[in-house]
Specification:
Layout: H1 2-12, E1 16-20, H2 35-46, E2 50-54, H3 61-72, E3 77-80, H4 95-123, E4 126-131, H5 134-138, H6 144-164, E5 169-176, H7 189-194, H8 201-207, E6 218-222, E7 225-229, H9 248-253, H10 255-258, H11 270-286, H12 296-306, E8 317-321, H13 323-332, H14 343-346, H15 360-364, H16 366-369, E9 386-395, E10 403-416, E11 420-431, E12 434-446, E13 473-478, H17 483-487, H18 500-505, H19 515-531, E14 538-545, E15 554-562, E16 565-572, E17 578-587, H20 590-596, H21 605-617, H22 621-628, E18 630-638, E19 641-650, E20 656-659, E21 668-673, H23 674-681, H24 687-692, E22 697-700, H25 706-715
Parallel strand pairs: 1-2, 3-4, 4-5, 5-6, 18-21
Antiparallel strand pairs: 6-7, 8-10, 9-12, 9-14, 10-11, 11-12, 13-15, 14-17, 15-16, 16-17, 18-19, 19-20, 21-22
Domain Peroxisomal multifunctional enzyme type 2-like N-terminal: 320-447
Pfam families: adh_short, MaoC_dehydratas, MFE-2_hydrat-2_N, SCP2
Subcellular location: Peroxisome
């Protein structure tokens, strides 16, 4: 049956196989013939494969796994396929018939898998298959014992998928329709022949392959067809009204909406399921609470305990920086001259020099790294027990290359997670009175919870699970042994990241990398892969910090594109540990960034000057072009970003001045702000001083700038 097909298929692809079979009939009786396992082993060996037989019950799972270890030295894959039937209508099922079905199907799968589990964890690899049934999914007359055990296997598989993921152990469930020793007396003979086990085996092999990322999924399979199943949940109805008890009549009145699957959701994790229900509680609470809730008094007491903290405004502060700080940050999160496209982040002379979007957290971090959390009224925060749980950053426009930003912080909410408190700190940063970026720091205070406060908040930016499919792109960067030492220069001086003694006191083998450093690496990977390093397309990022990283380890960012949202998770390549989870970056579509860019030259004083130069050169352009014979390109910036480009083409002909980059190649390119351009033109700013102070950038044949004197003074009369 199915087991034989699996064993032959695995062996054909080079796997070493332990074939386990008691030799009994479909009821688990008539034990004594061990030929089933022996025949399959002989068939594998006759074709040059490797296999051994085992005749132990699946209830003795350790013996089966031991057979694999003794024969082949390791255990990589477990296919839980053993099964029997004891069918009877519910009223006629005996205790024995109920118990033995659960012992073979559910307990047997548990025993074999548990015996293999620690071996798989140590080697950071494992693939497990559970065998459910359509009877378990949908129910079937006469199979109450069997269907209960089979759906139990699905629950077991889903939990193992969650617990094993960090160790690269994947667990999936199949519900096969196949002719086998167990079904040969149930199905018609022609159907047994049509539903060959060979039509199931390829799915099992794929799910067990090292490159398959599928995990925690359920598939129906048979006859050459495969389909994935998922849960679906109606939007439902709130049947509790403000200050009114919940009644059966209210349930009846809303029954149609309770059962309406239009716009249904498809929860994939228990967090999504419970989160929806908690959202309902918050909605009801916001309408004044419900008197029939016996915990409402405790929650009210806890909320009042935090009342002094929630909405508390932190002292305003300024965050000033120059190109030096933005470059230091870029180097701290792995930007390198080895990557040509990174040059725009680490060389201030680049025509498209830009500040990495995630520098926005550096601008806002002062209340967090500066110890201000210990000064919040109504909240006792031990700074030694503070962990950075999650981070959200949203940009409303690209960060200026240099500036002085005014920042305002507020305690958005305080949540009681039992083992600790989560403090949501919102920080708004303004440049020239305009809101540039918004941060939400989720700070976990270990050991301060358990007093009955609310667990969720509609003010929290929610982390989102990554899609359950192979990533669309993967990028890797090896961190330097000096990475934490370099990153801390951006303002987080916590000795945990540099002092071995302090790290040991905190329970680490050695100093760890800043979580926000890993955050910066990951965001840089997404920006590079999906936005070609265009900072104007960066809208927002949300991450959950899962595990620490040690300097010198390799960060592997796995990315999934779904529209303009890039889901990602970051792993340490050497260990497989997920260090950033449930993360995403929202990008602006290219059309949006173009739409939001002001038309070139809008509201720029320099525009009037270039237009006037064009007019004044019109009659004498031929003469000037003969003397100058060069093309000049100007990049005029506003707020740290290129706002307009102009070209003065004096190479042959009668010359011309036009808005936009040079249509050929420019001999010299000058970059400076609109304000500095006007000061140069008006004689208030010496060009040489502007150049050496960094206010004017020049590339190409810089000596040609001397000829600009001719244009600006003698001919244009400026």
């Amino acid at each position: 049956g199915l087991g034989r097909s699996y064993a032959l298929a695995f062996a054909k692809r080079g796997a070493s196989v332990v074939v386990n079979d008691l030799g009994g009939d479909m009821k688990g009786l008539s034990k004594g013939s061990l030929a089933a396992a022996d025949k399959v082993v002989e068939e594998i060996r006759s074709k040059g494969g490797k296999a051994v037989a085992n005749y132990d019950s699946v209830e003795a799972g350790e013996k089966i796994v031991r057979a694999a270890l003794e024969a082949f030295g390791r255990i990589d894959i477990v296919v839980n396929n053993a099964g029997i039937l004891r069918d009877n209508s519910f009223g006629r099922i005996s205790d024995e018939d109920w118990d033995i079905i659960h012992r073979v199907h559910l307990r047997g799968s548990f025993q074999v898998t548990r015996a293999a589990w620690d071996h798989m964890k140590k080697q950071k690899f494992g693939r497990i298959i559970m065998t459910a049934s359509a009877s378990g999914i949908y129910g079937n007359f006469g199979q109450a014992n069997y269907s209960a055990a089979k759906l139990g296997l699905l629950g077991l598989s889903n939990t193992l998928a969650i617990e094993g993921q960090k160790s690269n152990i994947h667990c999936n469930t199949i519900a096969p329709a196949a002719g086998s020793r167990m079904t040969q007396n149930i199905m018609p003979e022609d159907l047994v022949e049509a539903l060959k086990p060979d039509y199931v085996a390829p799915l099992v092999l794929w799910l067990c392959h090292e490159s398959c990322e599928e995990n925690g999924s359920l598939f129906e399979v048979g006859g050459g067809w495969i389909g994935k199943l998922r849960w679906e949940r109606a939007l439902g109805a709130i049947v509790r009204q403000k200050n009114q008890p919940m009644t059966p009549e209210a349930v009846k009145a809303n029954w149609k909406q309770v059962c309406d699957f239009d716009n249904a959701t498809k929860p994939q994790r228990i967090q999504e399921s419970i989160g929806g229900i908690i959202g309902v509680l918050n909605k009801i609470d916001s309408e004044g609470g419900v008197s029939t809730n016996p915990t409402s008094q405790a929650a009210s007491t806890a909320t009042s305990a935090f009342a002094g903290a929630i909405s508390h405004k932190l002292p305003s502060f300024s965050s000033a920086y120059t190109e030096l700080e933005t470059i230091m940050y870029a180097l701290g999160v792995g930007a390198s001259m080895k990557e040509p496209k990174d040059r725009k982040f680490i060389y201030e002379g680049s025509t498209d020099f830009s500040c990495l979007p995630t520098f926005g957290v550096i601008i806002a971090q002062k209340p967090i790294v500066g110890g201000k959390l210990s000064e919040i009224p109504g909240l006792s925060v031990n700074l030694e027990k503070v962990l950075h749980g999650e981070q959200y950053l949203e940009l409303y426009k690209p960060l200026p290359r240099a500036g002085n930003l005014k920042c305002e912080g507020v305690i958005a909410d305080v949540l009681d997670k039992g083992s600790g408190l989560v403090v949501l700190v919102d920080v708004y940063s303004y440049f020239e009175e305009q809101l540039v970026c918004y941060n939400q720091f989720s700070i976990f205070v270990v050991g301060s919870g358990g007093i009955g406060g609310k667990r969720t908040s509609d003010k929290a930016k929610v982390a989102v699970a990554v899609p359950n499919r192979p990533p669309d792109a993967v990028l890797r960067d090896t961190t330097s042994l000096n990475q934490a030492a370099l990153y801390r220069l951006s303002g987080d001086w916590n000795p945990l990241h540099i002092d071995p003694n302090f790290a040991a006191f905190a329970g680490f083998d050695k100093p760890i990398l800043h979580g926000l450093c890993t955050f910066g690496f990951s965001a840089r990977h997404v920006l590079k892969q999906f936005a070609d390093n265009d900072v104007s397309r960066f809208k927002a990022i949300k991450v959950r910090f899962a595990k620490p990283v040690y300097p010198g380890q390799t960060l592997q960012t796995e990315m999934w594109k779904e529209g303009n949202r890039i889901h990602f998770q970051t792993k340490v390549q050497e260990t497989g540990d997920i260090v950033i989870s449930n993360a995403y970056v929202d990008l602006l579509p290219k059309s949006d960034t173009l739409a939001k860019t002001p038309s070139e030259g809008e509201e720029l004083q320099s525009t009037l000057v270039f237009e006037e130069i064009g007019r004044r050169l019109k009659d004498i352009g031929h003469e000037v072009a003969k003397k100058v014979n060069a093309v000049f390109e100007w990049h005029i910036t506003k707020g740290g970003h290129t706002a307009a480009k102009w070209t003065i083409d004096l190479k042959g002909g009668s010359g011309k001045v036009y808005q936009g980059p040079a249509k050929g190649s420019a001999d010299a390119t000058f970059t400076l702000s609109d304000e500095d351009f006007m000061e140069v033109v008006l004689g208030k700013l010496d060009p040489q001083k502007a150049f050496f102070s960094g206010r004017l950038k020049a590339r190409g044949n810089i000596l040609l700038s001397q000829k600009l004197q001719t244009i600006l003074k003698d001919y244009a009369k400026l």
